[in-house]
Design a protein that fits this description.
Blueprint: E1 10-13, H1 18-29, E2 33-38, H2 44-55, E3 60-65, H3 75-78, E4 83-86, H4 98-119, E5 125-129, H5 165-182, E6 188-194, E7 196-198, H6 209-218, E8 226-227, E9 230-235, H7 236-248, E10 254-258, E11 261-264, H8 265-270, H9 273-276, E12 286-287, H10 289-299, H11 305-311, H12 321-326, H13 334-347
Parallel strand pairs: 1-2, 1-4, 2-3, 4-5, 5-6, 6-10, 7-9, 8-12
Antiparallel strand pairs: 9-11
Helix pairs in contact: 1-2, 1-7, 4-5, 6-13
């Protein structure tokens, strides 16, 4: 059991990120002092949304300059913290050099933060934002599991630098985190493994692959239809709550799948039709797999025929009961999350009526 002193400051790496923004809000609303590690503390345009949260909350935010790839750069930010949330990690699918752009930053960043935890006597717990893609690589992988269902004991063994490199980077980073954690006895590690994160951002122009997916549902680029690719989705606010509970619940331990709904891209788009279907070109039907296989790689650089073969028209299912049981998690409806995200894109001028 690990008891965290709520009067001690709490470190959040990658504090301007999509999930981190809501986590920072939760901490500030509890009256805590947040040590926000960011690339540039003087970049007021990027920090305006966090500053606004701090102005409206009893807590306090302090900024620290830190770079994922620079050894020792989290030392000052971590000083005096009992709890560290490591959320910083790139989420991009279309990259030229996967090793350099995904694998190296994820691995080095994890090492830098956790090795700093080893050097910082105050640290008692580290919560790392991993992903369900550290558990599986492709939907076809689920066919070898009991009931075709993912759980926390499973690890991704099918991804590599050349196939699903983002998933590969998350798998290596989480394995490295567990290796470092098991090499010491002062602090404990908890990992949060979210499915595709949806919902509104603290920053209405947040950059995350999920924003690209939802934007395509409203800007006409996927009007002909969507591939029936199974996936899990979860609201960003629920992911932030999972982090908070993983940090402060003394009993929290191990990995937690955080996913609200087993769904697919066609159902995801369908959740927008009631409210927005008349005014926006939201896809209404599933594209046949042969067509996705034929044109997918031409439309999206990050899409390969192997990926299509191993994921399209294949279901996705995960057991989220450990998080609901041990962390008390509950999940917003997919419709609520998608409508809030889509409306934010409309309000910020990223989507226009047809």
């Amino acid at each position: 059991m690990t008891e965290i002193n709520r009067n001690a400051p709490v470190l959040v790496t990658g504090a301007t990120g999509y999930v981190a923004g809501w986590l920072v809000k939760r901490l500030l609303d509890e009256g805590m002092t947040v040590h926000a590690a960011v690339r540039d503390p003087s970049a007021s345009d990027k920090l305006q949304f966090l500053n606004r949260l701090a102005e409206q909350a009893p807590g306090e935010i302090r900024y620290f300059k830190a770079d994922l790839l620079q050894d020792g750069s989290y030392a000052e930010a971590m000083e005096g913290c009992e709890l560290v949330f490591h959320t910083a990690s790139p989420f991009v699918l279309d990259v030229k050099d996967p090793q350099k752009e995904l694998v190296d930053p994820a691995l080095r960043g994890t090492r830098n933060v956790l090795e700093q935890a080893n050097k910082t006597p105050s640290v008692k717990r580290v919560v790392v934002t991993s992903s369900v893609v550290a558990i599986y690589g492709d939907n076809v992988d689920l066919q070898s599991l009991p009931d075709g269902t993912l759980n926390e004991s499973v690890w991704n063994t099918s991804s590599s630098v050349s196939h699903q490199p983002y998933a590969y980077s998350k798998t290596l980073a989480e394995k490295e985190a567990w290796k470092i954690a098991e090499g010491q006895k002062r602090w404990d590690l908890v990992t949060i493994n979210p499915a595709l994160v949806i919902g509104p951002g603290i920053n209405p122009r947040a950059t995350s692959e999920s924003f690209n997916i939802v934007k395509q549902m409203g800007n006409g680029s996927s009007k002909p239809g969507a591939p029936r690719m199974g996936l899990g989705v979860v609201d960003v606010r629920d992911v932030a709550e999972a982090h908070f509970q993983a940090g402060f619940n003394p009993e929290a331990s191990g990995r937690y799948i955080v996913s609200g709904h087993n769904t697919d891209l066609v159902e995801l788009a369908g959740s927008l039709l009631d409210k927005y279907g008349d005014q926006y070109p939201i896809p209404r039907k599933a594209l046949p797999k042969w067509l996705v296989w034929l044109v997918g790689p031409l439309v999206s650089k990050g899409t390969t025929r192997r990926m299509i073969a191993r994921n399209v028209d294949l279901p996705w299912q995960a057991d989220n009961s450990k998080g609901t049981r041990e962390l008390g998690l509950s999940y917003r409806s997919m419709k609520e999350s998608m409508e809030a995200m889509f409306q934010q894109m409309i309000d910020s001028g990223q989507l226009r009526k047809r």
